Amino acid sequence: MNGYLSAIFDPSLPFVRNALLAGLLSAVLFGTLGAVVTVKRIAGLAGAISHAVLGGIGMALYLSAKDIIPGLPPIVGALVFAVLAAAIIGFVSLKAKQREDTVINALWAIGMSVGVLFIAKTPGYADPMSYLFGNILLVSTRDLVLLAILDTVVVFLAWRYYPQIEASAFDEEFARVRGVPTDAVFIATLAVTAVAVVLLQTFVGIVMVIAMLTLPSGTAGYAAKNLAAMMIGGTVLAAVFTVGGLAASWALDMPAGAVVVVIAGSAFLSVSAFAAFRSRNRKNGKKSRNNPGQATAVGVLPGVEKQA
Amino acid sequence: MDETKLTTMSVAIRFEHVSFSYGELRVLDKAHFHIHAGEFAALVGPNGSGKTTVLKLLLGLARPTDGHITVLGRSPEEARNSIGYVPQHASYDPAFPISVIEVVRMGRLRTSVRRYTATDDQAVQNALAMADVADLADRPYPALSGGQRRRVLVARALAAEPELLVLDEPTANMDAESETRLFETLGQLKGKATILIVTHDTGFVTALTDSVFCVGERGTGRSVIRHQATLAAHVASEQYGGPALQVLHDTELPDDACRGCIKDSI
């Protein structure tokens, strides 16, 4: 930990500070957007978008390397594919619900396959692993600015339309009866998720974005009294997991993204197990109070019970 | 009878030759009926008969393929803020962190307004008291029993201070105590708001009911038919909030055979 602290303040290691800032800025998105993704139960949709992004990255790398579009940055290809995937998913979810599952899985698989094919045909060496699992040490100042802008937009939208977002997630039909444009809320959520996935994949990678969008807010959900508390709790937890993960990865010389997700996943599983254990104890306690005779009869021999 | 007066003042719901189809499937065929303001009406029909379609049209969640609907003298979309709606299957996620008062406050939700006013808070408190769930206000909604959750949804509908209250299968999954409390609440509301209960129980309805409509086959398609109902002294249970009325399915009353129309024409 001391080594990590020294590295943060070492002027010759700006990428360590960038990584920390990226982690903290990402935590806001993981917490705020993650809470909405979790309660709306659209983690599968976000997963499909995040995996389709590899197709865009591969295409951009190929077009750039072949000088078809010189200097095309991978993030632009990622953004195009993410928005396209979100548009297709949004259309199918709203207009052809019965096909939703198939289309989501198809986008998931096709996006990744197209990405792998483009990368395979790209001259020179491109490592798909760095896109799948991210490399936080490559975060640039431009990435930080973009993350800060997206944080501001997401926090503003969550604050401004909180009652409509909460109602749409809790009971969509009722929200529609009250005049809330629930389809627009859904499409906006998908669009923001698509853009966030593109920026966040730089940090934790395509595969792990979806884990970080669900694990911190899911963990916070066990203690939160409402959606706002889940957003704030998710943000705090995501920040703790991220900083802890960065410090651990620095100390253990391991990939930062994977370490962050392992910490977040362990915390979620531990809290889930504790909650399940506590809930079971409470149920048993209620049963004993409702049937006190049954509890005493446990220790009584069957024959003796019959006689009594 | 003064048709203008009926449309603008005393009629809460008016379906005029309304048809609706899901693709090729005709669900409603020229449904023509009305419910007066202040009436307690029941819409009955077996599962799959088209009750939900009537509700969706009424709430502006679907548009008729033919005909015209007026709710409280306006289009269903314009009347939304004056309608309190208790859905049958409210999406219920046990992991959703939300308190009872937050659920009830949704009854005051507006299209894009962020803040709730003092008037909204007062309406929420009144609704909690009317639905007899004030003591549950701060409890997590997922921790409630099925009956308590349905009473909270009734409170959410009442929070809108509705001119029209629509309840879809209100006693589904309710325990006897919650059923009794619900009908007490509805009894207090009767006359102050128009109440429409939708139920798949085609045999009997609560004795609070003024008029009974049935969604059923009529000629080549489905329509909404007004039936007579008579007191069924032998049937009395919490499910109907006390005495019940038996629906006489072999009767078919003309659309203007209701008490409201007879009173207006005198």
Written description of the protein model:
The complex is a heterodimer of chains A (308) and B (266). With 308 residues, chain A is mainly α. Chain A has one domain (2-288): ABC transporter involved in vitamin B12 uptake, BtuC (Orthogonal Bundle), CATH 1.10.3470.10. Helices cover 82% and strands 0% of the residues of chain A. Chain A has 15 helices and no strands. Chain A has helices at 2-9, 14-39, 43-65, 74-95, 100-121, 128-133, 141-160, 162-170, 172-177, 182-204, 206-221, 227-252, 256-290, 292-297, 302-307. The longest helix of chain A has 35 residues, at 256-290. The termini of chain A are far apart. Mean pLDDT of chain A is 87; it is low at 294-308. With 266 residues, chain B is of the alpha/beta class. Chain B has one domain (3-91, 162-265): Rossmann fold (3-Layer(aba) Sandwich). Chain B contains eight helices and eleven strands. Chain B has helices spanning 3-10, 51-58, 76-79, 100-105, 118-130, 146-158, 176-189, 259-265, and strands at 11-22, 25-36, 40-44, 66-71, 83-86, 164-168, 194-199, 204-206, 211-218, 221-237, 242-253. An eight-stranded mixed sheet of chain B has the order 5-6-7-3-9-10-11-8, with helices on both faces. In chain B, strands 2-1-4 form a three-stranded antiparallel sheet. In chain B, a hairpin with a 2-residue loop joins strand 1 and strand 2. In chain B, helix 5 (118-130) packs across helix 6 (146-158) and helix 6 runs parallel beside helix 7. The longest helix of chain B has 14 residues, at 176-189.
